[in-house]
Design brief:
Two copies of one chain form a homodimer.
Chain A lengths: L13 H4 L9 E5 H18 L2 E2 L9 H9 L5 E3 L2 H9 L4 E4 L6 H13 L2 E6 L2 H14 L3 E6 L14 H11 L4 E7 L11 H22 L4 E5 L1 H4 L2 H6 L4 E3 L8 H5 L10 E12 L2 E4 L3 H4 L12 E2 L6 E5 L4 E4 L11 E5 L3 H5 L4 E6 L2 E7 L8
Parallel strand pairs in A: 1-16, 2-9, 3-4, 4-5, 5-6, 6-7, 7-8, 8-9
Antiparallel strand pairs in A: 1-10, 10-11, 10-15, 11-14, 12-15, 13-14, 16-17
């Protein structure tokens, strides 16, 4: 999109000022060519590194994209909640890792249905309590349910115990349970989202894998070592050499402002943006768009400011959101007018996708398909 | 809910540790008795102050609650987007204020349908561009469309011009348009959400109304003076004396942590909470629940810390969210276990409601009804 500042060299055409007039705004645009390129690049990276790719579907929550990931060579997919697993199972995805502890009788009953239905279904556990519940289910079904033990290799302080002796001790206790089969160890390098620079991300990628390798060696037997996160996936080859056998990046399919800042992608690799319309110009230095926190979320970029980046317009700063308003600070000589449109790259694309029922798939800049966000809102 | 700290006086029963076992989590709980009490209190306040109540439906997005607000005496409702208006119009709500600028041919076509369908439909405008678009529609329909002019009485710097001569000048220009009828002025005291204390909120409530009254006096004629926000609604009587004739609070139906901190409600007035389950206890000082930013949103409380308040458990602090995980810091002697449940009062209930398709309506603490969030995701 051309710049809308008066200093621009050529006059802005109506088309450039208000692109895609057939779409009502705010609209979730998704460039299908960029998606395809992102999927292929990550699959190639996994192939080169010799690790299985198991993309996290929480980002797209879309059957279409999950199928494409598998077609391109993914070993299966990862999901965050049972509800996402149910959506993907119903669509015929036959290898699913539920990277979340299943707790309580209602969820165990739903898990039972999935175990019967999906040929290869693995559950992540990080405690004996959760593993025991799944084991009881396995016993009732007369089989051992595959489980990965989550290990906190990178001191991310969410789930899991420290790698090494402590995690290996937990692995040993899980192996004593009659209804589960420990098939892998997994980590999530959430700390990468707080990394200061590439050196730190690289170090985290290696440490994440090395912690799993160390734990696997103590625990013995043959165990997958599954690592996560898009920023650390840049160093998948190093992670593989440190012991990783599987990778679970998610955000790479679309990318976002956070991934750009973390150096995990460039502007041309960002597939999703929000098309928004200027609805008010109440002051020379202010323009208000029709996308607020109910469209973009309030997620702030960890190391920056603002609620998204205006694509191609660095002088326009999205400084404040209310639910349905995005307030931009603009240069006083900016000729942005009511009715003009801008594209916003979200700070964090995953929760942003979760706010819409469908994406507008673009090919060569033109709408080609409506893509359902099948798992939207499936937080249970 | 009883305290779960070991220092509690009586042992915690299973019921107290895991309330509402028939509900899967995370669940959006809505206490219907508290809702009714909140609705009645605000209506009584409006009646006493002698102003029309026009509640903002963006908070609940629910036909059931909009109807109840009208039954209890509301003059009509307010909505934020055309999509919300369409939902409410389809349910037969016959007096709707769309408090948002309608921009572009696609939205004007939808507005046309609403104008034909809804007996009393008013549009907010804050610019001549937007008013002109609506005027053309009015001319095509052979009528004058009622409009409110939005005025920035409290320097909230979102939409609208300053009150007084500037806004009155805009009012005069809007009156020259052939297809609209200027019927009111409106303000939104968004600045109240940054207020330091009650004195400041009171001052904003008065200033909001006084700015509209001053503008109306210069503009002449008979104009509604419509004011907004739940925090300033505490001072509806003072606003009425300063010139307000209509009030549009929204959040008061449910309330939230922000409203508590702003003194607009007490803990007993909070109708909505998220029921969540502890899924991990990986460290003595850490418990992880199954509600993250895809359930609670990342909205932070403006003057505090954390991502929600654990009801009845001030020692448990929800310090970090990822998409499906809520990380709580807990006292080292806390006996919270995997499977235990907590209730989280969200920082900001409006975007939180927008993440679910239904609320679980409770009566006397028991589930009584599933309440659809009819306008969920209607951001266009």
């Amino acid at each position: 999109m051309a710049s809308r500042l008066k200093s621009r060299r050529s006059p802005t055409s109506d088309r450039a000022r208000s692109p895609l007039p057939e779409l009502d705004t705010p609209a979730w645009l998704c460039d299908l060519d960029v998606v395809e390129s992102n999927l292929r690049r990550m699959q190639a990276r996994a192939n080169t590194a010799g690790v299985r790719l198991r993309p996290h579907a929480k980002t797209h929550k879309s059957v279409r994209f999950a199928r494409r990931q598998v077609e391109l060579g993914a070993a299966g997919i990862t999901v965050a909640k049972l509800g996402e697993a149910e959506v993907m199972a119903a669509a015929g995805i036959d290898d699913i890792l539920l990277a979340y502890p299943v707790v309580g009788p209602l969820k165990l009953a739903r898990l039972r249905e999935l175990l019967v239905r999906v040929p290869r279904f693995t559950c992540a556990v990080d405690s004996l309590e959760v593993a025991s519940g799944i084991s009881a289910l396995g016993v009732a079904l007369g089989r051992r349910v595959p489980v990965y033990l989550e290990v906190d290799s990178t001191d991310s302080r969410r789930l899991g115990f420290a790698p090494g002796q402590i995690a290996a001790g937990m692995a040993a206790r899980i192996r004593e349970l009659p209804g589960v089969a420990l098939t892998g160890l997994m980590a999530h390098a959430g700390a990468a989202y707080g990394a200061a620079d590439q050196a730190q991300i690289r170090e985290l990628a290696v440490r994440e894998a090395a912690g799993l390798a160390e734990t696997a060696q103590i625990a013995g037997g043959s165990l997958q070592r599954s690592v996560g996160s898009t920023p650390t996936a840049t160093y998948m080859d190093l992670a593989a050499r440190a012991g990783a056998t599987e990778a679970r990046p998610g955000t790479y399919i679309f990318n976002d402002r956070t991934e750009m800042r973390l150096g995990a992608c460039g502007l041309d690799d960002v597939a999703v943006s929000i098309l928004a319309t200027v609805v008010s110009r109440p002051a020379p230095d202010r323009a208000v768009i029709d996308a607020g926190s109910k469209t973009l979320t309030s997620d702030t970029f960890l190391a920056g400011t603002g609620f998204g980046e205006v694509r191609g317009e660095p002088a326009l700063r999205l400084v404040r959101l209310s639910e349905e308003h995005g307030v931009m600070e603009v240069p006083a000589d900016c000729d942005l007018a009511v009715g003009d449109r801008v594209e916003i790259i979200p700070n964090h694309v995953c929760p942003c996708i979760n706010l819409t029922d469908e994406l507008v798939g673009l090919r060569d800049g033109r709408p080609e398909a409506r893509i359902p966000v099948d798992g939207r809102g499936r937080v249970r």
